[in-house]
Amino acid sequence: MTSTAGAPATETGAGISLAEVGRAFGPTVAVSGVSLTVPLHGRLSIIGPSGCGKSTLLNLISGLDDPDEGTIEVLGTTSSADRLRRCAWMPQRDLLLPWRDVLGNAALALENQGMKRKTARAQVAGLVERFGLGSFERQLPHQLSGGMRQRVSFLRTLVAGKEVLLLDEPFGALDSITRADLQQWLRSALDSEPRTTVLVTHDVEEALLLGSQVVVMTARPGRVAAQYATDFPVGASRRELLRLPEFTELRDELLARLEEAS
Amino acid sequence: MKRLRGVLPPVIVLLIVAAIWDLVIHLGNVQNYIFPSLESVFRSLYDNWSPVLASATWVTGKEMLLGFLISIAVAAAISLGLHLSATLRNAIYPLLIGSQAIPIVVIGPILAIIFGYGIQPKLIIVAISCFFPIVVSLVDGLASVDPDLIKVMRTLDGSRLATLLRVELPSALPSFFSGMRIAAVYAPIGAVFGEYAGSQNGLGYVLVQATPQLNTDLVFAAVFLLTVMSILLFVLLSVLERVCVPWAGKGKR
Prior knowledge:
The complex is a heterodimer. Chain A is built from ten helices and nine strands. By secondary structure, chain A is α/β, with parallel strands linked by helices. Chain A is globular and about 50 Å long. Chain B has a single domain, classed as MetI-like (MetI-like fold, Orthogonal Bundle). Helix content of chain B is 82%, strand content 0%. Chain B is built from nine helices and no strands. The interface between A and B is medium-sized, with 29 and 23 residues.
């Protein structure tokens, strides 16, 4: 599959690795002693109770923030400026620009990279179409449903052409039906546009559906309590997965771990 | 029908006020030079329109509009500076607030001494009266962008300039317009004070001439014209806002 979103560099080796990372804000230790690795094009889900430093961890990986202790390596580079160049971050709220239509919002990163507005819009039109937003491309954000806005927000993140996607509870603000729909959508989107992904969520099912690895964190300070690898059949739909005995077993295990953690 | 419902209530209130006005004048047998009847105000407006009031309105209107445009330009430049540099903010903001403590009435004569009776001192006074609310609201608007959105821009390769142009300036437009609408109210006050301090034409000049002559009809006619110009400026800004900020007030920001 050819990418219209600007092909990310296909380097070999580790995607993301964290070694003994710690970060404190004043007297509050947000995360401490976190070590993780995500292989290139791997998908890691992080779950944990609120206040376990999940979002802090994403900010640290993205290069928006620097750790007090330990090192973070993203595609072989460690400085925050280099990490920022390789990571795209998507927060829980869509934060679309209300004065730009769907195409304009999706094209934002390309314009930031110096492309002319018209060229950028033309370039993202294909991707917008392919991800089921074609008939909405001229609509403004306030004309879209919450789920649609979140899709546009994800496309905007994808279009930046970054190798690493950091998703901070991307569906946290949506109702459960839309959420299930978008989980399925995101799975197929990532299958067709593979990226190294770190997803933060407080939803165990979402973590299992979207991650090939799942990390459980404890709160205050945020530490890694347990790590699991998921090994579900490729190409299975969300509903098929939810019925699998392995899936329900792992879900119960994770829920038990989460209860211990909080 | 909808438009009518918007216009009707203020028109009714206006008619009631006019009726009470006339009733008080006639029943109370108030002298015209103390408080003129509406009828005599409008007759004076009609009689004096050409040449006195027409040219005075033109002069004062020009001062208001030009002074207001200058204040917008100056305020926009100052706001951008304050927004982009914390040093500048610390250095200049206290002075700006201090500048507002200087009474306009005092500045008028000084400027008249420096610049004479021409249009310059009026433009300066209008600009000084108007720029402050614009600066405050524009600086607020630029700074009140969601911090997460700024972070998103950084991870989407947005430079400082890109963030300013694509995110901060458009987000600040609604506050910018609020500031301008507040400032528009000060424009006629500034122009009239400027003319009080020394002028050869303008509605302020008409007021200065008519008051000691107890030509109260004319005073009220001039005030009426000032009010109309203020309202027109305000309406113009509201229309411009609707054109420039069509997304305002639609869904969450």
